[in-house]
Design goal:
Blueprint (H helix, E strand, L loop, with lengths): L1 H34 L3 H13 L9 H5 L10 E4 L5 E10 L6 E9 L2 E2 L5 E2 L8 E3 L8
Length: 139
Amino acid sequence: MAAVLMNRASALERMANHFRLSFNLFRNSSTTASTASPPAAAAAAAEGRANKSKRKKKKNLFEVAQFLPNWGLGYHVAKTHWTGISYQITKINLYKDGRHGKAWGIVHKDGMSAADAPKKISGVHKRCWRYIPNSTKAE
């Protein structure tokens, strides 16, 4: 019984060695073919990868407001998929990292104020906010 098990083990080991050798032969032939290609083709491939534009990371409300004077107080911001609706920021509570927090503002529809009192802006952490440059800053 031990002899049968030894024969099976040696047969499996020979098959594994044969597979490894054939795989190494295949791998070596494929790497020599790629190194034999002209350098101009490799440079064109690298340039093609560099020209591929990466998707621009959208910003949450605080990342938009941080570049505005006084953290955007008085400026209009809106979500990218909104049409005709914006918030005029009246108050911002930032957490320590400067990218999270809470914000309040007055809703504007088609440029006109839709509410008198500021309300908490929902979805401030979603990455879909933009600055509305045509709106005038309220003093």
